[in-house]
């Protein structure tokens, strides 16, 4: 358990410091030595390696559009049942 926690902390450190070579190096070195649940996660990371590297290297993100979409859906959900837009505005 201690080994898994230390490995997790190292992976988190390399991910936050945007070091994909070290991140994936750790995964590949420890793939056979970890618990099967970790193996499943590591295999998924290796399968999506190119996408993860792009996310670490590029400064593009869709977080703001996703947040805006979520807000619009929330407002629509709250507006359900109001026949009059003025009544809806009063509620907000």
Automatic annotation (TrEMBL):
InterPro entries: Transpos_ISL3, Transposase_DDE
Domain Transposase IS204/IS1001/IS1096/IS1165 DDE as annotated: residue spans: 2-92
Protein name (Swiss-Prot/TrEMBL): ISL3 family transposase
Organism annotation: Streptococcus pneumoniae
Source lineage: Bacteria, Bacillati, Bacillota, Bacilli, Lactobacillales
